[in-house]
Structure formats: structure tokens, C-alpha cells
Amino acid sequence: VVEEEGLRSKEKEYAFQSPEDLDTRETSFLISKGPQPSPEKRFNLFLRRRLMFQRSEQSKDSIFFRDGIRQIDFVLSYVEDPKKDSEIKAERRREFQLNLRKTGLELEIEDKMDSEDGKTFFVKIHAPWEVLVTYAEVLGIRMPIKWSDNRQPKYPPLSYMLGPVKLPATVKYPHRDYFTAQFSRYRQDLFLIEDEATFFPSSTRNRIVYYILSRCPFGVEEGKKKIGIERLLNSSTYLSAYPLHDGQYWKPSSTPTHINERYILRQNWARFSYFYKEQPLDLIRNYFGEKIGIYFVFLGYYTEMLLVAALVGLACFIYGLLSMENNQTSTEICDPNIGGRMIMCPLCDELCDYWRLNTTCLHSKFSHLFDNESTVFFAIFMGIWVTLFLEFWKQRQARLEYEWDLVDFEEEHQQLQLRPEFEAMCKRKRINPVTKELEPHMPLCHRIPWYFVSGTTVVFGMALLLSSMVSIIVYRLSFFATFATFMESEATLQNVKSFFTPQMATSLSGSCLNCIVIVILNFFYERISAWITKMEIPRTYQEYESSLTLKMFLFQFVNYYSACFYVAFFKGKFMGYPGKYTYMFNVWRSEECDPAGCLVELTTQLTIIMIGKQVFGNIHEACQPLIFNWWRRRKARTHSEKLYSRWEQDNDLQVFGQLGLFYEYLETVIQFGFVTLFVASFPLAPLFALMNNIVEIRVDAWKLTTQYRRPVAAKAHSIGVWQDILYGMAILSVATNAFIVAFTSDIIPRLVYFYAYSLNSTEPLSGYVNNSLSVFLIADFPNHTAPMEKKGFTTCRYRDYRYPPDHENKYAHNMQFWHVLAAKLIFIIAIEHVVFLLKFLLAWMIPDVPKDVLEKIKREKLMTVKIIHDFELNKLKENLDIEYNNIVKHDTVEDVISPAGGKIPV
């Protein structure tokens, strides 16, 4: 027993040494007691090694040090590579780990011989109580001081009907509600500390340790201190740095005192069979931190709001489907005696032939699905929906700030924390006007060159995108001429109805090509923009993310929406008329819309890009980490007889990274643009977005709990700059939908004909097709544009409002063109004013912070001040009582001396 105690004391002495050194020193410690150990000593040595072996066997899923008591808060891994600056890297690691110990952190190193691959060292880090309380005060972390007496919100009427989507209360609300205050180590007795080991949750612990790691120095170069784990990771001094997951995601914790929150999240959140269930948001926040938690709150709220828009959009689509057969326009186009007798002008010069209007019969019927009376209603509805979405999100965010103790977070901490890279690059210092402390400073003149490079790159990226769009337009024009030539034959002059018209075939192929180009350009631009933003040396993480967000969003906005803007607002608008067409580069004739309008082509473009992006994104997000993790585990597990420990398992997982959440937000905001900007042309867009988001929530949850290392917890009180982007897109969506209804849809021309030009009272739209097509004299075709084969026709028709060839203003715009144009402009002005008036009215009526949340915030602030005041008062009384008791203990008054040196009078 005495020898075992001696070994334990030696283990504590060499706790920070590698296992090889530990075994060597313990063996030499035993041998130093005598040249020939006695049988008892040999037995004790065997017993010691056996106990360590059993402890290792039991620690496969352990998240503790070898003593089974100290929790692992962070893990660093590295490999000794003799070929690449091994001595320099080893010196950096020694200096870094020494400085970590000086801050109070405790380290334990796992030798490479005990790892699966036989070459990776693992440095396990534990933050003791004194370190936690010190940095909890530095970071302003709020901790519970008293159980909250605020009443929980009552369940709404008929809430029992939502029983199937509810989670158990222990999962949804893992902890009671408390009044909280910023932690102070001098007021520890004020806080509800039942157990020091569990007082700080694991997410708070790893956040504190990462804060220390990101500011710990590891050397000096050219008089400038080199600091931060990120620089060590970039130089491959360490391979990885990560906090541990709570345990295996497929089984609960075997220790009664330890709750495996990862397993609970996997069972109740990250399962596709639970797609209809609510999310355990408080548990997500406790495990991953507020920044990731608020993303899932936003994604869940956005999905809930999409449900309403999807139902209304589906109703509009069903209305179009039911009224498709009764549509007067498509009926006339399909009628052999009307559309079958209308000879249309060629779709391209020389090679294309004339064609009959009824060949687009199926296309015109399909167009009515999205171009009907409900389109106007749905455009107005979505303008109101987006306003309600943003206003209710303000309330949800305000409630979340209160529930998660984030009310005063931004101004106190987020804007004041500097990036370690900024601190390392700055040579000058100045006094911060807010904190009145000396901090690194970089003059503006040093940043201007990088700002110039950044702006040039963004402009170049935009120019590249526009050039790619022009290239796709050229492809569409070339493909259109080729396909039209292929399709145009004698069959086109027969009553042959086909859905794949030249316009539709060109739209499908062009949309698919555009989707491929979008993916390729995104791949390159993402990496370039991230590098340039890093070179700008932003001061804080907030500035870094804002700068990167601006670059990426501008690029992706143009990348994803440019083709849709072209089809909606430019295609067929400036094409001219037969005999006087406009040409692109004097080579390709401008595209023209189908006689039923360009709305179907816009719908096709939007559908392919939106659905293609969502399907590709979900497949990529699900398969990429799965394949990479399988390959890394396959390469790592070369010694199957070794212990595959908890830290090794997490080391083989994918890295979520600081920008992992950024790309998730970017994907959601781009989808929001598809749902709002062009929704008048595709009422099913909210439905497809809803189905995607239901899958997206579970895919993201599955990734974070099973395929990624645990991210470092970080605080955030809102979705940041993305909220301003959403507001901008909401305002823009009102204008785009109004212009789509006016200029892309065929509703306004039909209404003008209905009220001003229709002569048939029983069938008001009778004759509309004939009225919307102008007449062109074939003899007026220039020689280089007329079809090669001469036909027995004297005239052909084209879509426009122009005078016939026998009119004195030959081929000039007629009066109906100006009536339709005026009606379109009036419609745009009226719709925008109505929608914006409703938006401002709703924004004024709906408060940003709910009344009950305001009352709770005031109540908590009042109670916090009262509790702290009572605590300080009681502490003062206790100190006075102690001094009084000390005075009373003395036998004589003369024995009591005042602080001034004199006797205290009785």
C-alpha cells in the first residue's frame, strides 16, 4: 500500500509527461530503492501496470484524464515530422504548452505509441476551477443566482392537437429557468453552485479554454509576440484543436453522474424519422453554444412560416390546374380553325421555316398553370407574408435574447474582442476610447492597399459572372437557331402539337448549363473571397464575417439570379420585329418569347436552378462528410489492437470550421431570394423550399452530432448582417414581383383587351390571340433573313402591337401598345404603393419586443440588483460581526488597538 501511494505521488509529479517518460521514471523510482527488488515490490509494479491497463480499457469512451476525475475540455493533436522543420515546431509546442500551464491549465499527453495510427500525439487539456472562475469573469458569462419566478407562457387553445410534434419536457427544457448575473469570483457564494465539476456546462468550458488557446503566446519573432492556436494550426505545428463530444451518439453514458447530451440530441433531433417534431433548442444551445443554436432557431422559424406560404401557393397552383381546360387563350391557340390557320414568322433567319400557332398548344396550357388571375393575388400575399416574417422574427429574436441571457451581450463583449490574427499583425497600439485600455491598432493607410485589392476582386468577379451570362445567352441563341432548324419541317405546318418547342428546349438546356456554371464559379470564388478577407486583417470576428458576407452575397446574388433577371425583364423585350430584328454582336438574332409569354421560361429557369441547387446541396452535405470520415478512419485504424479512444474518434471526424455556419446562412438566404424575388412566376417555390428545409434541419443536425467534431461554443445575440440582407431582399421582392406580373406575365394585356377591346359580351376574351398578334408582309423580308424555301403565304404573324403593312404608319406601334404600356406602369405603381403601405402599417402595429418579454427583462434586472444588494449587505454584516466578536474576545479594552494605532474607547 505504501509503495502504491508512492507511485501515485510520482504520477502526480510527472502528470504532464508522455506515457513513455512516465513509465521510465516510475521504473527508475522503483529500482532506486534497491538493486534487487523484493517479490512484494515486483508484485506492486505488476499491480500498478495492471491497474493502468484496466483503466485504459475502461477509458475507450472516457472524456476524463487517466485519473478518471479531471474532465477533458480540449484536445490538441500533432505528428512529429523530421522532414519539415521538426525542431522549430517542437520548440513552438514546448513554449506553447509551457505558457498554457502558466495560465493554470492542466495538460496530459498521450504518446503516439498508444494511438491507432502509431504516429499521432494527443495533448489533453483540463481547465481547473480557478481558471474557469477567472475567465468566466473576464468573458462576462452569466450564471444562475436564483430560480426564476416568472410564469411560464400558457399553452394556446387546442394545443393538445399538437401533441405528436411535441418533445418530452425533459428534452425540450433540460434545465430550470433562473435569474442570472455576470459571474464574479469574489461573489461565488452568490451563485447556485451545487457541484464545481458541473457548474459550468461543457460548452462554456470549451469556450473558455479556446479563448486562452487563441491568445496564448508561443514565441517572439522580430520583436513581435507570436500568439494563438490558429497560427500554430496554419503552420501545421498542431494538426487539430477541438473539444470532445460528450460520448458515443448511439449509446447513453455509462456513468450515472455524466449525461451524454450528444446521445439525447441524436435520438430526439438528428433523426430523419423525427422530421415532424419540434427542435430541442435549449439543449442545442447548451451543447453547441448560442451561435449555432440561434441558426437552428431561425431555420425552424423560417420553415414554420414557409408552411403558410406553401399552402397558399399550392392553392393558387391547383386553381390554375382546374381552370386550365377552360382557359380561352389556350383554347384558341389549340383550335385548328384559329391557331391552326395562323402562320407564324420564322424563329431564325434563312434556315428556319414558317410554323403554325397550334404547335404550341401544350405549351400554352402549361403556361396557364402559373399565368392566371391568382398570380396577382399571390404576388400581393407574398409581399405581406415577407413583412410578417421579418416582424415576427424580431419578436422571436427578442424572446430568445431574454431566454438565453443575451440582452446586453453585443455592446459588452462582441464588439470588444479582437481577433488573434489582428493582434499578431499589429505593431502599433493606442488607447481604446471605450475601454480606456491600450490595445493593438492598425492605421487605415496600411489597410487601403488590401481594400483596393478586395474591391478589384469583387468587380472582376462580377464582370466574370456577367461574361458567363453573356456566354450562356450566346449559347441559347445558337442552340435556338440550330434546334429551330431541326424542328422546322413540313410537320410544323401540320396540326402537330408538341411540348418541346424550340423555346422550351432552349430554356431547359440553357438552365441546366447555367446551373453547372453557377456551381463551378462558386467553388473558386468562395476560396478567393475568404483569402482576400483574411488579408484585410479585420479587427474583430464580427468585422471579418461582415466583410466576407458582403463579398459572397454580392457574388452569389449575381450568380444565381442573373439568368432569372434576364428571362424576366430582358428576353423578348427589345427584339424588334420581322425585317428589322435586333442582333447580338451583329450575328445572333435576339430571343423572342413564346406567343403565350415568357413566364413559363422564367418558371423553368427558376425551377431548375432552385431545385438543382437544393438537391446538390443536400447530397453534398450528407455524402461528403460520410465519405471523408470513412476514408480517414480506414487510414487511421492501422493497429486494431490499440485502444481507439474518445479523442481519436473525434480526431477522425470532419471539421465544422469557423465558416461552417456562414455557408449555412448563405444557402438559406439565397433560397429566401428564390422564394420572394420571383415567386409570382412560380407559386410552388415556397412548397419546394419547405420540403428542402425539413430535410435540411435533420441533415445539419445529423452532421453536427455524428459526422463533425464538436464546434467551439460561441455567443451570438442575432443572425447578424443576414438580417439586413433579408430586409433588403424583402423590399426588392415587391418591385420584382410587380414587374414580373406587369411585363413578363400576360395578365395586363388580357385585362386591357377585356375592358377596352373585347366586343363579345358572352366570351370577353374571345379573339384575344388574334388581337395580340401583328401581321407582317412576307415580301418585306430582307434577302438575308427570308426563308430559303418559298411558300404560298403572303403574310405571317408575330407577337407585338403594331400597325399592319397596309397602314400609313406601317409596322409602327399602334394605340393598343401604349394603352397596355400605361396599364402596366399604373399596375406597378398601384401594387407597390399598396404593398408598401401594408408593410409599414404592419411594422408599426407589431412591436419589436413583446410586452411580456419587456416585463420579464425589467423583472429580472430588478431582482438581480436586489439579490446582489442583499448579498453585499449580508456580507458586510458578517464582516462587522466578525470584527465585533474579535473585540469582545479581548479581556481589556487596552488590548484592542485601533487601525490608527490608538486604543479603541469603550
Number of strands: 18
> Order of strands across the widest beta sheet?
2-3-1-8
Question: Gyration radius, to the nearest Å?
Answer: 36 Å
The count of helical stretches stands at: 29
| Low-confidence spans | 1-58, 411-415, 892-906
- Estimate the strand proportion: 5-15%
- CA distance, first residue to last residue: 60 Å
Name the average pLDDT: 80
Structural class: alpha+beta
Query: In this structure, how is the largest beta sheet organized?
Result: 4 strands, antiparallel
Given the C-alpha coordinates, what overall shape results?
elongated
Structural summary, described in words:
- Belongs to the anoctamin family.
- Residues 1-37 are annotated as: Disordered.
- Its main location: membrane.
- The chain has 906 residues and is of the alpha+beta class.
- The protein has a domain at 278-753 and 830-845.
- It has 29 helices and 18 strands.
- It has a four-stranded antiparallel β-sheet. A two-stranded antiparallel sheet has the order 4-5. Strands 6-7 form a two-stranded antiparallel sheet.
- Strand 6 and strand 7 (224-227) form a beta hairpin.
- The chain is elongated, with a radius of gyration of 36 Å.
- The chain starts with a helix and ends in a 17-residue tail after the last helix.
- The relative contact order is 0.10.
Keywords:
29 helices, alpha+beta, disordered N terminus, 906 residues
Task: Give the topology.
Layout: H1 2-13, H2 19-31, H3 39-58, E1 74-79, H4 86-102, E2 106-110, E3 120-126, H5 129-138, E4 142-147, H6 169-172, E5 178-182, H7 196-199, H8 202-213, E6 217-221, E7 224-227, H9 229-234, E8 240-242, H10 261-268, H11 281-288, H12 290-322, H13 328-334, E9 343-344, E10 355-356, H14 361-370, H15 374-403, H16 409-414, H17 420-425, E11 428-431, E12 438-441, H18 444-487, H19 502-535, H20 541-569, E13 576-577, E14 580-581, E15 583-584, E16 588-589, H21 599-636, H22 646-651, H23 660-677, H24 685-707, H25 721-744, H26 747-757, H27 768-772, E17 773-777, E18 795-799, H28 815-845, H29 851-889
